[in-house]
């Protein structure tokens, strides 16, 4: 049965959740991994939603196995991070979104969902946009995050999560960052953390290491990106304009 198992007794009030599912540019994943590492966040819960592959994950120099999708917590910052080592199949996105959205609602969590917008990125700094459900628009206005200039859609599991939040009239924010459409993009993840997470929550995550280690991060994530391209094609989580429908 789909469920989330909590493994640690950590006191959270009304936490913000940063979603780190793999998608275009691996923007959310890079940002999530960086937060978990930088703040040395505690392993909080395992996610067992329908549609997730039943695989076990291990780390170097650590014999303890973990599920592929996990929640980490930081009580001081009232912060949760969804860390995923596997892509969620678009065919299973609905079941996954139903499962996770139910847990989010039951625990008074405000989710920040992250998506990459495939772009050539002519500017030095990628643009960041915000979309919302429920009272999320007020949060975006207070943080000074603007909506996209063009109509579009968010696909894949992140899109399913936003759709489910809207269907249930839950408050959620979607952060859309311009990202490299083919390779992991640490710079886009930096923009999400500095211009998205910080003004929305007040959480200041140092990103100097993220930028300095961009090449190292690209190498470490390229294998996952390649696997995603082979298995999911163009169906991974991403934002995309809808010019073709207008």
**Largest pleated sheet:** 8 strands, mixed
- Number of helices in the DSSP assignment: 7
SSE topology string: EEHEEEEEHEEHEHEHHHE
Q: Estimate nothing, just give the exact number of structural domains.
A: 1
* Distance from first to last alpha carbon: 42 Å
Unreliable parts = none
User: What's the arrangement of strands in the largest beta sheet?
Assistant: 1-3-6-7-2-8-11-9
Radius of gyration equals 17 Å
Number of strands: 12
Q: Average pLDDT across residues?
A: 89
Sequence-ordered SSE layout with sheet pairings:
Layout: E1 3-6, E2 16-20, H1 27-38, E3 42-48, E4 57-59, E5 62-66, E6 69-74, E7 79-84, H2 93-106, E8 110-118, E9 128-133, H3 136-143, E10 152-155, H4 156-167, E11 172-179, H5 186-201, H6 208-212, H7 214-232, E12 238-241
Parallel strand pairs: 2-7, 2-8, 8-11
Antiparallel strand pairs: 1-3, 3-6, 4-5, 6-7, 9-11, 10-12
Helix pairs in contact: 1-5, 2-4
């Amino acid at each position: 049965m789909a469920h989330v198992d909590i493994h640690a007794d950590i006191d959270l009030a009304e936490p913000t959740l940063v979603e780190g599912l793999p998608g275009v540019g691996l923007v959310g994943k890079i940002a999530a991994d960086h937060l978990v590492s930088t703040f040395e966040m505690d392993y909080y819960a395992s996610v067992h939603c329908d549609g997730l592959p039943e695989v076990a994950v291990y780390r170097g120099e650590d014999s303890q196995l973990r599920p592929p999708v996990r929640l980490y917590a930081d009580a001081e910052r009232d912060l949760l991070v969804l860390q995923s080592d596997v892509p969620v199949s678009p065919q299973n996105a609905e079941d996954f979104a139903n499962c996770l959205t139910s847990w989010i609602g039951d625990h008074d969590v405000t989710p920040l969902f992250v998506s990459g917008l495939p772009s050539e990125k002519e500017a030095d700094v990628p643009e960041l946009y915000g979309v919302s459900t429920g009272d999320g628009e007020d949060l975006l206005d207070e943080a000074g995050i603007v909506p996209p200039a063009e109509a579009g859609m968010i696909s894949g599991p992140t899109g399913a999560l936003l759709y489910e939040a809207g269907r249930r009239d839950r408050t959620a924010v979607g952060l859309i960052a311009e990202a490299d459409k083919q390779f992991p993009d640490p710079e886009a993840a930096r923009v999400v953390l500095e211009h998205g997470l910080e003004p929305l929550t007040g959480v200041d995550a140092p990103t100097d290491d993220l930028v300095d280690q961009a090449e190292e991060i690209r190498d470490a994530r390229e294998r996952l990106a390649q696997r995603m391209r082979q298995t999911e094609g163009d169906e991974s989580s991403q934002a995309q304009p809808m010019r073709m429908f207008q």
